[in-house]
């Protein structure tokens, strides 16, 4: 699968060079030049990695990194020309995975991107409009707010949200959340769904995102934002 790489950089020439190199490396570059737009884009699109400039209009990279870390562990490489910030970056005070100093070679950036992606390969972030699932931490957020889910509720939501519109029978859902094939009443799924809906509805006014299909099972409806 082609990796989606978000480049947050307000210097058009530099952003263009990085975008070209990332595309040549077989990844999909996306560029944002204003710090105020980053967090919502990340929630919606769930990139594989962020190249995040420190100095940005609207909101700086430090603040963006901290906000992203509230809901996701996706890899972040900070880019800075401010030498005085290096100690803070190295100290991981902001939760970044790596940093690069300007000026830099685009080839070096690609090498660092690939290295971080290899190192964090166990993290998978799934986004579905305003629903974000962080598989590495069993963390789900809806409209930027954390859903307090049990492990079973998370697995159930993940199974449904990965295939919006697909109808799952109770048996299929039980196989996904109880792979040890333990004996469980099929109405147990109904109970978990009821609790999951209630938690999602407490955040989203239109919280009925998981729909019952009479006589068949359940499906997740794609959020519009």
Structure in words:
The chain is α/β, with parallel strands linked by helices and 225 residues long. It has 2 domains: 4-119, Response regulator (Rossmann fold); 125-220, Winged helix-like DNA-binding domain superfamily/Winged helix DNA-binding domain (Arc Repressor Mutant, subunit A). The protein is 37% helix and 22% strand. It has 8 helices and 12 strands. β1, α1 and β2 form a beta-alpha-beta unit. α1 (12-24) crosses α5. The two termini are 24 Å apart.
Quick take:
Helix content is 37%, strand content 22%. The protein is of the alpha/beta class. The strands form three sheets. A five-stranded parallel β-sheet has the order 2-1-3-4-5. Strands 6-7-8-9 form a four-stranded antiparallel β-sheet, with helices on both faces.
Please describe the structure with a list of short key phrases separated by commas or semicolons.
12 strands, 8 helices, 2 domains, elongated, Arc Repressor Mutant, subunit A, four-stranded antiparallel beta sheet, five-stranded parallel beta sheet, Rossmann fold, alpha/beta, 225 residues, single chain
Number of alpha- plus pi-helical segments: 8
Give the proportion of residues in helices.
25-40%
Helix and strand run: EHEHEHEHEHEEEEHEHHEE
- Low-pLDDT segments: none
* Rg result: 20 Å
How large is the share of residues in beta strands?
Answer: 15-25%
Look at the structure and name the CATH superfamily of the largest domain: Response regulator
- According to DSSP, the number of beta strands is 12
The CATH architecture of the largest domain would be 3-Layer(aba) Sandwich
């Amino acid at each position: 699968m082609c990796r989606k790489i978000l480049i947050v950089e307000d210097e058009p020439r530099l952003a263009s060079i990085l975008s070209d190199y990332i595309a040549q490396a077989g990844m999909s570059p996306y560029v944002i030049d204003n710090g105020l737009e980053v967090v919502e884009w990340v929630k919606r699109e769930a990139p594989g990695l962020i190249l995040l400039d420190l100095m940005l209009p609207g909101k700086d990279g430090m603040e963006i990194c901290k906000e992203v870390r509230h809901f996701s562990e996706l890899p972040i490489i900070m880019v800075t020309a401010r030498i005085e910030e290096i100690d803070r970056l190295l100290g991981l005070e902001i939760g970044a995975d790596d940093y690069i100093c300007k000026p830099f070679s685009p080839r070096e950036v690609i090498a660092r991107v690939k290295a971080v992606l290899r190192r964090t390969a166990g993290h998978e972030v799934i986004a579905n409009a305003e629903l974000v699932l962080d598989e590495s931490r069993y963390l789900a957020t809806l409209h930027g707010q954390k859903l307090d889910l049990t492990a079973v509720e998370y697995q159930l939501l993940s199974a449904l949200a990965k295939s919006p519109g697909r109808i799952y029978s109770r048996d299929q859902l039980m196989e996904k959340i109880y792979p040890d094939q333990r004996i469980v009443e099929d109405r147990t799924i109904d109970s978990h769904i009821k609790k999951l809906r209630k938690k999602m509805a407490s955040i989203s006014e239109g919280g009925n995102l998981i729909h019952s299909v009479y006589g068949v099972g359940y499906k997740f409806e794609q959020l519009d934002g």
